[in-house]
Design goal:
11 helices; transferase; 352 residues; CBS domain; Nucleotide-diphossugar_trans; single chain; NTP_transferase_dom; mannose-1-phosphate guanylyltransferase (GTP) activity
């Protein structure tokens, strides 16, 4: 049984934001909606929240509007083997445990099984110049700048290792020797690290063409910029991509922009509506992708191309590029303000 289950209980009047905090903080991928008597009213998963975001529901929406009202539950006395069978048959990751119609616990597949090992390649882009962080990057590649007591790139790699990934490739260009000297072949971290070097910058997608031919032919690859700090659930991302048989999956973040003026709509010279300082919501590229072998193989060696352009080409061919909204912590360390924020955030994220 998960010993953090009491921390994932929320009230029906809670909002989607409240559920997000619970799911992110406790890492159990679920929140349980209960009344004052601790009777189960419904459950909210990160999948429910992502569907809500895709349907443009505001974060202030009550959780009762997105929760599952008929969740799968089990008696607190159910044997482990039966719980495993139940969760596998229903394709769920957690089951609330009940006693006399009240929630008394939570069991998860992750807890019932040992940690998984993923042999999917993880490809990290670490070749950029980091010009917006000068003078810090005059003598150090941006991924090797320290956040807390570790280089950014080491924090990224350790987050993948924690999720069970063991097979890494790093793309280098600017000051590659500093990266290679620090990580070597990965043996000190208990993983395998290989390097591909861009003699000239190839864009965010071009380095795919430099990967070796002996990559696993049946496993999708996770690709990520080496200057991103995040607590995204890489296992869930990979499962989403595989379950939907996507050619590629792009992680996206919701971005809000408030127009600082009243917006006037009209027809001819007649005003039809007025909206004071409206908020526009967009999905933006988070710099994290899952790509299938066919996409990797489509990139010629030493061919310059950015990932959005590459994905657009495949969209036109097969229309099978998906997006995966992430609500977890995410920070692209591109500017000095971002670098300073990361220094403040790192100790509270469990990433240091």
């Amino acid at each position: 049984m998960s010993y953090s289950w009491k921390k994932i209980l929320i009230k029906p009047e809670s909002t989607v934001v409240d559920a997000l905090r619970v799911i992110d903080n406790e890492a159990l991928r679920i929140a349980l909606v209960v009344n004052d008597e601790q009777q189960l009213l419904g459950v909210v998963t990160d999948g429910d929240i992502r569907r809500g975001l895709l349907n443009n529901l505001p974060l202030e929406t009550p959780v009762v509007d997105i929760m599952s009202r008929s969740p799968i539950t089990a008696s607190v006395n159910t044997a482990k083997e039966q719980l495993v069978k139940l969760m596998e048959s229903k394709s769920i990751l957690a089951v609330p445990l009940m006693e006399e119609n009240k929630v008394v616990g939570l069991e998860t597949l992750h807890h019932l099984f040992e940690e998984k090992t993923y042999h999917n390649p993880v490809f990290i882009m670490a070749g950029g110049f980091g010009t917006r962080l000068r003078p810090l990057t005059d003598t150090c590649p941006k991924p090797m700048l320290k956040i807390g007591n570790k280089p950014i790139l080491e924090t990224v790699i350790r987050s993948f290792i924690k999720a069970g990934f063991v097979n890494f490739y790093i793309s280098t260009h600017y000051m590659p020797e500093q990266i290679q000297n620090h990580f070597g072949d990965g043996s000190e971290l208990g993983v395998k690290i290989s390097y591909v070097h861009e003699d000239s910058p190839l864009g965010t997608g071009g380095a795919l063409g430099l990967l070796p031919d002996d990559l696993p032919q049946d496993l999708p690859l996770i690709m990520m910029n080496g200057d991103v700090l995040t607590k995204v659930d890489f296992e869930r991302l990979l499962d989403f991509h595989t379950e939907n048989q996507a050619d590629a999956t792009m992680c996206v973040r919701e971005y809000d922009y408030q127009i600082p003026y009243g917006v006037i709509n009209g027809k001819g010279n007649k005003i039809t509506s007025m909206v004071e300082k409206p908020i526009q919501r967009f999905f933006v590229n988070a710099g994290i992708y899952v790509v299938s072998p066919s996409v990797i193989q489509s990139v010629p060696k030493n061919h310059h191309i950015d990932m959005p352009t590459l994905l657009e080409q495949h969209m036109n061919e097969r229309d099978n590029i998906l997006m995966f909204p992430i609500h977890e912590y995410w920070l692209d360390i591109g500017r000095m303000d971002d670098f300073n924020r990361a220094q403040a955030d790192i100790h509270t994220l469990g990433l240091d």
